[in-house]
């Protein structure tokens, strides 16, 4: 049976086909876990980092990137240590870990934060993918008709096309079957980030004057003090969201094969994944700011124009599309697993829910087919209904950074290690958590302000590029 059907799985744990918990043998390695992490971390958020650094400047921008990288790595190692409970039993999801160490009430709060964020991310990815698809069409339009042509077109057909593809891919039973897809997606993220870096270097080499600053875009006729404040908060939110992958960390760790302790392998994968991600973030953000200065666009690939070399920008957008196809699955698989596990426990005798059928070597489930299809349709419709949904995603990302990336890992580690209250270790961990809470609140405020501005021009089902 699938992972979601673990409650009715059978098998001898001593068999070579099963792990110590009676589930089918896990096959994940540090390489596949790193690929999952890179796929989850290096999302379309990398494209906005030049804009974020333009808001913060040469000093605060790189410091913010480095700080979020270190914090995310540190708290991820704490979370990795909590995969197994103190009795040695496995925790299969983030919520299971929270329940094991902190109790049921906090498990509920964790679930709300985690799954709300995951749903928001999948909707945001639907929008972002369609924008990249349209960008390819527009670049050819500009190339054919000239740079003055508007070449505007609706994103909706491309959102629907992405949804149809995700309905098919969503039939992959669980996280354990996503390794190849994640590796391909990770390669794509390297590709479009490298293209952006290369184009930035080329633009810098061309010369020309671009205005940059140690403190970012200066206050003046085009930037009020209030707007500068909101943009700074929003920039912090973009950076925080760019590093958020804790909501799928436990699910990734649950794919690692037995043998070497899972937390040791996961820590290696986390260090590799975050190090690689930070390197690309720094290069894209810093070189993008150097290339465009204070006029850095929200998507720095579009800043090179949809013009020349149009074919290279097209390749970058194709890579973004392929990457987000895989990233969508990485973020929605925990949602699928949660609903299917709950359904199995609620109706264990219902054959519609529990039975699987083998078709040409593939395991198919009518329940999985119907419910996952409905979920993809739901995210697709919302992506078309709210063309500014990225503002919601920014808010969700900011709101989830503190509880999922910082608060719960720290509190669970304190509970696991039985760290005394008001000891040195306890105090500095609480200080770190408090600082991150303040940053999250400020980032959320910036996202809310952007959402209010977007609502002023809101038109349902009117998403245009």
UniProtKB/TrEMBL annotation:
Residues 26-452 form the Amino acid transporter transmembrane domain. The chain crosses the membrane at residues 33-53, 59-80, 178-201, 230-250, 271-290, 310-331, 369-389, 395-414, 426-448. Its main location: membrane. One of its GO terms (biological process) is amino acid transmembrane transport. It is found in: Membrane. One of its GO terms (molecular function) is amino acid transmembrane transporter activity. It comes from the Eukaryota. Residues 14-24 have a biased composition (Basic and acidic residues). This is Amino acid transporter transmembrane domain-containing protein. The lineage of its organism: Eukaryota, Viridiplantae, Streptophyta, Embryophyta, Tracheophyta.
């Amino acid at each position: 049976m699938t992972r979601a059907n673990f409650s009715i799985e059978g098998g001898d744990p001593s068999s070579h086909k099963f792990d110590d918990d009676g589930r089918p043998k896990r096959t994940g390695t540090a390489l596949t876990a790193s690929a999952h992490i890179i796929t989850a971390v290096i999302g379309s958020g990398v494209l906005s980092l030049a804009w974020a650094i333009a808001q913060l400047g040469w000093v605060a921008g790189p410091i913010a990137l480095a700080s979020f990288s270190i914090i995310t790595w540190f708290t991820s190692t704490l979370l990795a240590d909590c995969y197994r409970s103190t009795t040695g039993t496995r925790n299969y999801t983030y919520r299971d870990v929270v329940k094991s160490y902190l109790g049921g009430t906090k498990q509920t709060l964790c679930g709300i934060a985690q799954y709300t964020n995951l749903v928001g991310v999948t909707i945001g990815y639907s929008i972002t993918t369609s924008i990249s698809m349209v960008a390819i069409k527009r670049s050819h339009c500009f190339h054919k008709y000239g740079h003055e042509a508007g070449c505007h077109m609706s994103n909706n057909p491309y959102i629907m096309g992405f949804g149809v593809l995700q309905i098919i891919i969503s039939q992959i039973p669980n996280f354990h079957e996503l390794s190849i897809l994640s590796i391909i997606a990770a390669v794509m993220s390297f590709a479009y980030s490298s293209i952006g870096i290369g184009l930035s270097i080329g633009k810098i080499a061309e010369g020309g004057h671009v205005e940059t600053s140690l403190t970012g875009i200066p206050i003046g006729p085009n930037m009020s003090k209030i707007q500068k404040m909101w943009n700074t908060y929003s920039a912090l939110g973009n950076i925080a969201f760019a590093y958020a992958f804790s909501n799928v960390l436990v699910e990734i760790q649950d794919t690692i094969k037995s043998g070497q302790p899972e937390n040791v392998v996961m820590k290696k994968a986390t260090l590799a994944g975050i190090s690689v991600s930070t390197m690309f973030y720094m290069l894209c953000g810093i070189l993008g700011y150097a290339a465009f200065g204070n006029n850095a666009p929200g998507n720095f690939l579009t800043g090179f124009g949809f013009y020349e070399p149009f074919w290279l920008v097209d390749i970058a957008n194709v890579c973004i599309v392929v990457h987000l196809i895989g990233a969508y699955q990485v973020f929605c698989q925990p949602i699928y697993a949660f609903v299917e596990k709950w359904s199995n426990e609620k109706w264990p005798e219902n054959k519609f829910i529990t039975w699987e059928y083998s078709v040409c070597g593939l395991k198919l489930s009518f329940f999985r087919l119907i419910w996952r299809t409905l979920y993809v349709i739901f995210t697709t419709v919302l992506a078309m209904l709210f063309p500014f949904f990225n503002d919601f995603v920014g808010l969700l990302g900011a709101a989830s950074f503190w509880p999922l990336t910082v608060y719960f890992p720290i509190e669970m580690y304190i509970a696991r290690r039985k760290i005394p209250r008001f000891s040195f270790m306890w105090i500095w961990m609480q200080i770190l958590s408090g600082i991150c809470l303040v940053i999250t609140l400020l980032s959320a405020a910036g996202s809310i302000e952007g959402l209010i501005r977007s609502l002023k021009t809101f038109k349902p089902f009117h998403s245009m590029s």
